[in-house]
Amino acid sequence: MQPLDDGTYDAFIIDAEEIFEEKRDRGVLHLEITITSGARKGEVVRVRAEGMDVDAINVIGMPATLTVVDGQPSVRVDD
């Protein structure tokens, strides 16, 4: 799979799993996200997300915004 170009992508969270890392008290989310518009529509990307303060089960099926800056992705769950 080709890396995503910098930009903002409409997305949909299709899977989420909380992973507890040994040296940390809080979990990290591993998300599978599908792009829902634009040239990359339909592609599924995997993102590691920290500090979202959401339950993994509750974000499955939610719309999201995926932003890539300098090759680094970040995810915001849209209400």
Structure in words:
- The protein has 79 residues and is mainly β.
- It has a single domain, classed as OB fold (Dihydrolipoamide Acetyltransferase, E2P), CATH 2.40.50.
- 5% of the residues lie in helices and 53% in strands.
- It has one helix at residues 56-59, and strands spanning 7-20, 27-35, 44-49, 63-69, 72-77.
- The chain has a five-stranded antiparallel β-sheet.
- The protein is globular.
- It starts with 6 loop residues before the first strand and ends with a strand.
Primary descriptors:
79 residues, mainly beta, OB fold (Dihydrolipoamide Acetyltransferase, E2P), five-stranded antiparallel beta sheet, 1 helix, globular
Q: What is the name of the CATH architecture?
A: Beta Barrel
Helix residue percentage: under 10%
The low-confidence runs, each spanning 5 or more residues with pLDDT under 50, are none
List SSEs in N-to-C order. Answer: EEEHEE
Oligomer, anyone?
Answer: single chain
- What structural class results from the helix and strand content? mainly beta
CATH class categorisation: Mainly Beta
- Percentage of β-strand residues: over 45%
Distance between the termini: 29 Å
Net shape? globular
What is the number of helical segments per DSSP (H or I, 4+ residues)?
A: 1
| CATH third-tier fold name | OB fold (Dihydrolipoamide Acetyltransferase, E2P)
Question: What's this model, at a glance?
Answer:
The protein has one helix at residues 56-59; strands spanning 7-20, 27-35, 44-49, 63-69, 72-77.
